[in-house]
Amino acid sequence: MKATISFIKQKFEEFNRQMFGGKLPDLPVELSDASRFLGMCVSKVTRHPDGREVHSDFRLRINTRIDFPQEVIEDTIIHEMIHYFILYNGLKDTSAHGAIFMAIMNSINATYGRHLTVKFSGTAEQHEQFVDTRRRWHIIAVVHFRSGKTGIKVLPRVVPKVIDYYNHVRRAAEVQEIELFLHNDPFFNRYPTSASYRAHDIDAQILAEHLTGAHRLSVDGSRLIQH
After folding, report:
1. Is the pTM of this model over 0.85?
2. Which pLDDT value is given to residue 126?
3. Cα 98-129-9 angle, rounded to 5 deg
4. C-alpha triplet 149, 208, 190: angle, nearest 5°
5. What is the pLDDT of residue 52?
6. Over pLDDT 90: what percentage of the chain?
7. Hey, what's the torsion of the CAs at 36, 42, 44, 45, to 10 degrees?
8. Measured between alpha carbons, how far is 224 from 227 in angstroms, rounded to an integer?
9. Is the pLDDT of residue 175 over 70?
10. What integer is the mean pLDDT of 165-184?
11. Long-range contacts of range 17-24, CB-CB < 8 Å, 24 or more positions apart?
């Protein structure tokens, strides 16, 4: 099923009474087609001079990109309600899914027979459906390591950053060669755009299949040239 606003509001009220003592105020609910999360508790953060962070203007976003079993959607709502509970009450956790979050999550699982987790563990098909399939132009760096491994990096479409990445990585002792390409295959949407030097491991054969039709780029001083 795909969540609706009415379903989310109904479940929020039900779980609020059942698991949070009815103490969480209602909040706006939004549907999302994002490719990076199942649910999200969004808030405005005000930072005070003494270092305190106060959260307000909470909103609950639930993904409707693909079909999920009802239980998964319910668990997602509860997961985000735990975040809401912690932030609304000004509790200081050790991390986003720190000690407080884990204690509440484990208690809910044990008491109500839920299957809350901190990471989505869906099927390969569900993960694939999360990938953005729109055609977008990417600058792609392919790094060939002396070890025989291949790395991939989707770079910002900013010439100085591309050149900096290229020059830095090609001088690394463990790098045999680096290539640059311009392509709009949706396959590359799954990789975050970043100028950090770390590359993602990838099977060379799979990469070669998705680079079919790509435009090769080269660096000439301060210029990026398309061939």
Report:
1. no
2. 53
3. 60
4. 85
5. 79
6. 68
7. -70
8. 10
9. yes
10. 95
11. 18/112, 19/78, 19/81, 19/108, 19/111, 19/112, 20/81, 20/85, 24/81, 24/84, 24/85, 24/88
